[in-house]
Write a structure and sequence with these properties.
This protein is an all-alpha fold. It is built from three helices and no strands. Helix 1 packs across helix 2. The longest helix has 29 residues. It is elongated, with a radius of gyration of 22 Å.
């Protein structure tokens, strides 16, 4: 996968212009891939996805806890 923003910026840097109906899009994307400027799709295992969800929940809980502590100090 290649980011659309990266494609637009690369095209602007190649010839200084950008059109929505550019016939050079495939060459532009191939150029980005040859430079290694591409994204890789990752589908982690169910256990890893669950762990990431729990870590996200932990961060959100810590933020709410900190907000409660600040409000308690103000009172």
């Amino acid at each position: 996968m290649v980011s659309g923003v990266t494609v637009k910026r690369n095209q602007e840097s190649l010839d200084g212009r950008w059109t929505s109906m550019n016939v050079k899009d495939s060459a532009n994307v191939a150029d980005l891939i040859s430079q290694g400027k591409c994204l890789y799709y990752e589908h982690p295992s169910a256990e890893l996805r669950g762990l990431r969800g729990l870590l996200s929940l932990k961060r959100a809980t810590q933020e709410k806890e900190q907000g409660c502590r600040v409000r308690i100090r103000i009172i």
